[in-house]
Amino acid sequence: MSKEKGNLSIHSENIFPIIKKWLYSDHDIFIRELISNGCDAITKVKRLSSLGEAELEENPEFKVKVLLNKTEKTLKFIDNGIGMIDEEVKKYINQIAFSGAEDFIKNYKDKGDVEQIIGHFGLGFYSAFMVADSVDINTLSYKPGATPVKWHCDGGTEFEMEEGSRLERGTEITLHLGADGEDFLNDSTVRSTIEKYCSFMPYPIYFEVEDQEPQKDADGNIIAEEVKALNEVSPLYTKQPNSCTDEEYKEFYKKTFNEFQEPLFWIHLNMDYPFNLKGILYFPKLKTEFDTMEGRIKLYNNQVFVADNIKEVIPEFLLLLKGVIDCPDLPLNVSRSFLQNDGFTKKISDYITKKVADKLNSLFKSDREAFEKFWDDINPFIKYGILRDEKFYQKVESIVLYKTTDGKYVTIGEYQEKYGEKLDKQVYYVTDSLQQAQYIKMLQELGVEAVILDHSIDPPFLSHIEMKNNEVKFKRVDSDISDLMKDKEEIQDEEVIKKETETLSNVFKKILNREDFKVQLENLKSEDMAGMLVLSEEGRRMQEMMKQYGMGGGLNFGMPNEEILVLNKKHPLVKYVINHAEEESEVKGLIAQQIYDLAVLTNKPLSAEAMTGFVKRSNEIMKRVIGEN
């Protein structure tokens, strides 16, 4: 063919600045696009061969090679796919945004499955100009007697095309890297980018540095290095679930996410209708509460990496998990980085939610013991899903477990069935098993266990459950004094109780120099505790909400007049304060202050100043016990 010059068919001379700055969000995506094009070229020639329209050598080894030459500042992408004749170069390269992939699918859509064609938009090749000052194409078509073609463009609107020198079927694209592509003269950068975007592409991808000095042994002999493909052409998620072993699932998880710990369990997604979707979702073992924010779900399109954690496809609450999802039917935009608005994506999201809920229900019903073992790790995820997704809540509400203070796991239904008559469908809970140990002990002495709700997600979660189920009312163990705790056999004179309560109230307010709390006198069944500090459930939740939104207003504990000091009339120390209420007694003051601080300690930490006073006072009391003033 004779040498030919011409102008690229575009509507604006500013197309290249647009491509460089706006078409793709990340410059490294050009590697994904050019390798994808190479894979498409191989898929096309394989398809033509299967239809008897292309003659190939026996058992061809299809592959894509990426070659870096640091000296010449070039990066080459080589495939042994379909290749192009000069007319095809004019059509698919010179006419920017004309998609060869779309043209191929259109021509062969009635002749079998061509879903593995990756490209859609025809702009992928031009992503090369984000990093290259000029680009060369050397290509030879599969067609018998085809003439090789060489194409060159320096990033302007002009190209040169002439007969090339390529002898093997396929295409070689050479990028002459410019200032914007200097990062890609680093072989580790190129390698990591290939692994990032192309880990699961359907044909082997090899990477070599052409001008790298070969390694030699002690005698100066060159050590032959085995070049391994950087990708896995048949990733586990593309296989049928019944053909995968537990060890394969675990190994895939560790390799894909660079994890050392094994996952708790997983869900293998495999759907062909009404859309094509495959993937594996893993439930990771959480090491700390903050791990719940570190989930990662990698989204692929025909084994080509698109992005992490795309919320249009992955329900937000599932982003706490780790996994891989591949959906060839995704309506991607031209850069593949974002989804076009489409109701189809909502169907995918709903399907994924349903499969996760089904898996959890199946595990709960078929192996509750295993489900209980996983619960401490997976419950933040399930609770978050309940808060964020109504359909998910409806599917899993009956399998939500609550860990009780004796280490058992129960559903709300089971808890209420056991304690319904005693607690009138109330559910007692604790947020700190150590801090609230005395309250737990009092309830246990009465035959009642509380549930443990100590995660940061629990306050909104329990409010949500109450809103959805009018038969459930949560109460923290220190939110009030249950009738169960009161000794009703003690005969009480209401007038006496009223007078003694008023007396104690005056004593404590004076000694503590506070007016913002109430005193309540009760005959408790337990004689071990002199005083308890309680705050109404509503007051506590208001306090938590104000704290969350930075509206504390300087209040030390909840809303004004919400704090109640419950004193046990049976306790000797309380009796002592009552009997010496009218006296100006230093001992009375020490005891009253100590009762209060001990009550606070079972409820919340003391302030630094209060703790200093508590330690000093405790030492003083012990000195008095042994007779030292």
Features:
single chain; 629 residues; Heat Shock Protein 90; Ribosomal Protein S5, domain 2; Rossmann fold; 4 domains; five-stranded mixed β-sheet
Summarize the structure.
The strands form 5 sheets. An 8-stranded mixed β-sheet has the order 1-6-5-4-7-3-2-8, with helices on one face. Strands 9-10-13-11-12 form a 5-stranded mixed β-sheet, sandwiched between helices. A 3-stranded parallel β-sheet has the order 17-16-18.
Write up this protein.
With 629 residues, the chain is α+β, with helices and mostly antiparallel strands. The protein has 4 domains: 4-209, 2-Layer Sandwich (Heat Shock Protein 90), CATH 3.30.565; 236-369, Ribosomal Protein S5, domain 2 (2-Layer Sandwich), CATH 3.30.230.80; 401-477, Rossmann fold (3-Layer(aba) Sandwich), CATH 3.40.50.11260; 492-625, Four Helix Bundle (Hemerythrin (Met), subunit A), CATH 1.20.120.790. It contains 17 helices and 21 strands. The protein has helices at 15-23, 29-50, 86-94, 100-108, 187-198, 246-257, 343-366, 368-388, 390-396, 412-423, 437-445, 458-468, 494-512, 537-548, 572-579, 586-601, 608-625, and strands at 4-7, 64-69, 74-79, 132-140, 149-153, 158-163, 170-177, 205-209, 265-271, 277-283, 296-301, 304-308, 322-326, 402-403, 409-410, 426-430, 451-452, 473-476, 517-522, 531-535, 563-568. It has an 8-stranded mixed beta sheet with strand order 1-6-5-4-7-3-2-8, covered by helices on one side. A hairpin with an 8-residue loop joins strand 4 and strand 5. Helix 2 packs across helix 5 (187-198), helix 7 packs parallel to helix 9 and helix 8 runs antiparallel to helix 9 (390-396). The protein is elongated, with a radius of gyration of 36 Å. The N and C termini lie far apart (113 Å).
